[in-house]
Amino acid sequence: MGHSGAVWEWDYKSAIITTKDRNGINQIVLRNSQGASAKISLQGAQVTSWRNEKEEELLFTSSKGIPKASKTIRGGIPICFPQFGSCGSSELHGFVRNKMWKIDDDPPPLPGYDQEGKSFVDLLLKSTEEDMKCWPHSFELRLRVSLAADGDLTLISRVRNVNGKPFSFLFAYQTYLLVSDISEVRIEGLETLDYLDNLFQKERFTEQGDAITFESEVDRAYLSSPNVIAVLDHEKKRTFVIRKEGLPDVALWNPWDKKSKSMADLGDEEYKQMLCVGGAVIEKPLTLKPTEEWTGRLRLSVVPSSFCSERLDLDRSGL
Predict the structure, then answer these.
(1) Which among 76, 60, 129, 109 has a CA at the least distance from the CA of 274?
(2) Which reaction equations make up its catalytic activity (predicted)?
(3) Which CATH number belongs to the domain containing residue 260 in this structure?
């Protein structure tokens, strides 16, 4: 593939183009034949926008500017690696979200991936000597972001150990969905699961509700979750369907009003329009031996009207 300003066409109007965002950072724009689009910043390989064929935004991003202490936009889909949460002196949620990635011109084959009718880009991050100072392991992290003809957004990450010794890591797609009103949102698919509650020193609880609803701050990791969950937005009469592979857990977060007011990169009332929910590896770190590779996949879809648990049970198709 080429570089800045070039356009590559796979089918009809599907295309990828390189532009710059409002901060002057290179970004990739994917489009499909129906008018849907996605934007991916080379800063952190962070998806910053996902729009449907009506050009309606589906991901939340904060309207507030980026604080000098942070390089990551609050919102979109940041990638968390090699940890999720704080870990010693390492950066919160890992350091790859603050690194400049490169377009991968010659990615290795991705088994089971059908590129028919899809716009996609491959990005690559390799560990540097600077990275080794805070996390002493050599790795390659690849990300493919794909926009299908039906508007589905897929992220496929591959972590490869190019080290002389095994290493362990955590991982998360910290997906910020744009919702009409968090108080009117319901999640199905996490019922009866155990979760770690970060508001109670990661104490373990069991979910008791028929569905997850929101009335206050939530910061949890649901463990060994199904590969399909649904986020129902009653006011917009639409449902986000989240499918995942290789990601056993689900991170769930909304800061609510009190914490929002203390966050420099989030508006006081913006918590009402956001829900952070995504596939993750949290409870049990993954370990890779030298030359081994791990793959994690996340697919986001939007369907109209309501979505029920019975359909969830039947709709467990792969990515």
Answers:
(1) 60
(2) alpha-D-glucose 6-phosphate = beta-D-glucose 6-phosphate
(3) 2.70.98.10
| Residue 274 forms part of a structural domain | yes
Pairwise CA distance, residues 109 & 222, whole Å: 32
Torsion of CA 305, 183, 264, 200, to 10 degrees: -120
Structure tokens at 157: 């990450």
Tokens linked to 37? 């689009």
Is 319 a domain residue? no
Segments forming the whole domain that contains residue 211? 7-314
Give just the sign of the alpha carbon dihedral 152, 186, 307, 221.
Answer: positive
Instruction: Confirm whether 88 is domain-assigned.
Output: yes
Give residue-wise pLDDT tens across range 205-249.
999 988 999 999 999 999 999 999 999 999 999 999 999 999 999
Q: Name the domain count of the chain.
A: 1
